[in-house]
């Protein structure tokens, strides 16, 4: 196996240091038949964990697993199209046998067969969604990645999930949601919306970056396997600390070293990638707010946090947001796993970014 691949891990044997998370998933999905939400910041390894688990699930049970990536999907129609085509692609590759062929299935078949995959807008996406679900074999596992992006028609998706619980009941597929704890995801996890999910909201599994030592061992193992790199443990320790123990950025550092870069250069490149990816995550966080004016204030709040301001009262003054909105925003960033909170007294808490590259990203982000 080539160390530090650029794409997510798909085989369980290649998934490093996630034994705890995998057995937690096994317990929830196989024993309790629960839906799961895998939450964490970018590059922490959510997709890898979900996909490696899904592959193992498939080979252990003989049931199909369908992976869908919903990054950039805006509404329910696009959601159903993406999902339907992912299912049909597996059917075409002979990796999935449907239980029945319905009009909905024929619809996606037709879309797939059209040249260049030009989408035909479905007239009733909710009915199509239900038909595809009924056609899936019992025990299917669905991985729904990056669902937080869906800004419009969230209630249509929640209603569709409610129908799954209500109509298909025990025959419903198992779903692993992954993404960042913002937008639709917040809603999905919020007990207020539990009605939609028939009292069966997904169980949250947080994916944390590795500690310094695990990061060092991960790098050491990969670099030794590559065999062409002269490295010291101090260098790997510095990389593990600076890159916050994020598998994605550690891998990028490792690839740099294998490609012949010096420690300094490889670390600088990986850190720069981390800042850029953190900026794009913070930008999607800002864009979830509909009004421009509000977006500008959230950016001002992030800029101030980038400068090191940590008190909600000061952040409110500097951003023009009310202190209540400041605290709500900070609490979402806390949920997303990128800031930490420290209680200063019974009434005052301060918030700081957990990782240097998020602080740098917050400083650089502009309206
Ligand atoms: N447990 C792991 N073992 C080895 N490599 C990993 C692991 N988790 C993530 N990676 C590497 O890090 C990169 C980013 O991981 P990914 O799963 O895409 O993160 P996320 O979905 O959280 O953004 C992947 O390309 C993968 O190669
Ligand atoms: Mg991912």
TrEMBL record:
**GO molecular-function terms, A-Z:** ATP binding
Boundaries of each ATPase domain copy? 17-251
The family database entries (Pfam families) matched by this protein are listed as:
ATPase_2
Taxonomically, the superkingdom here is Archaea
Q: What is the official name of this protein in its record?
A: Putative Archaeal ATPase family protein
Q: What is the lineage of its organism?
A: Archaea, Methanobacteriati, Methanobacteriota, Thermococci, Thermococcales
């Amino acid at each position: 196996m080539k160390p530090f691949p650029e794409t997510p891990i798909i085989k369980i044997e290649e998934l490093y240091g996630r034994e705890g998370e995998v057995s937690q998933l096994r317990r929830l999905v196989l024993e309790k038949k629960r839906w799961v939400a895998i939450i964490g910041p970018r590059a922490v390894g959510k997709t890898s964990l979900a996909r490696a688990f899904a592959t193992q699930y498939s080979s252990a049970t003989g049931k199909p697993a369908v992976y869908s990536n919903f990054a950039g999907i805006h509404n329910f129609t696009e959601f159903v199209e993406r999902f339907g085509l992912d299912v049909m692609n597996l059917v075409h590759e002979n990796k999935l046998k449907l239980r029945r062929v319905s009009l909905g299935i024929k619809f996606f078949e037709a879309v797939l067969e059209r040249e260049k995959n030009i989408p035909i807008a479905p007239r009733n996406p909710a009915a199509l969604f239900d038909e595809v679900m009924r056609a899936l074999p019992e025990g299917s596992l669905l991985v729904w990645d990056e669902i937080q992006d869906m800004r419009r028609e969230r209630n249509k998706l929640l209603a569709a999930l409610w129908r799954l619980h209500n109509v298909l009941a025990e025959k419903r597929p198992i779903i692993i949601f992954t993404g960042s704890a913002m937008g639709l995801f917040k809603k999905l996890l919020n007990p207020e919306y539990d009605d939609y999910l028939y009292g069966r909201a997904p169980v949250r599994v947080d994916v944390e970056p590795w500690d310094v030592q695990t990061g060092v061992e991960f790098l050491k193992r990969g670099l030794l396997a590559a065999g062409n790199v002269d490295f010291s443990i101090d260098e790997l320790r510095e990389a593990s600390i600076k890159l916050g123990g994020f598998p994605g950025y550690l891998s990028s550092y490792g690839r740099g070293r294998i490609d012949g870069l010096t420690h300094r250069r490889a670390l600088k490149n990986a850190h720069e990638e981390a800042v850029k990816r953190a900026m794009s995550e913070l930008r999607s966080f800002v864009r979830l707010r509909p009004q421009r004016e509000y977006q500008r204030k959230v950016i001002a709040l992030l800029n101030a946090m980038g400068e090191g301001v940590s008190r909600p009262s000061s952040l409110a003054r500097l951003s023009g947001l009310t202190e209540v909105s400041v605290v709500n925003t900070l609490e979402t960033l806390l949920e997303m796993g990128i800031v930490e909170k420290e209680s200063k007294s019974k009434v005052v808490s301060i918030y700081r970014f957990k990782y240097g590259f998020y602080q740098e990203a917050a400083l650089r982000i502009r309206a």
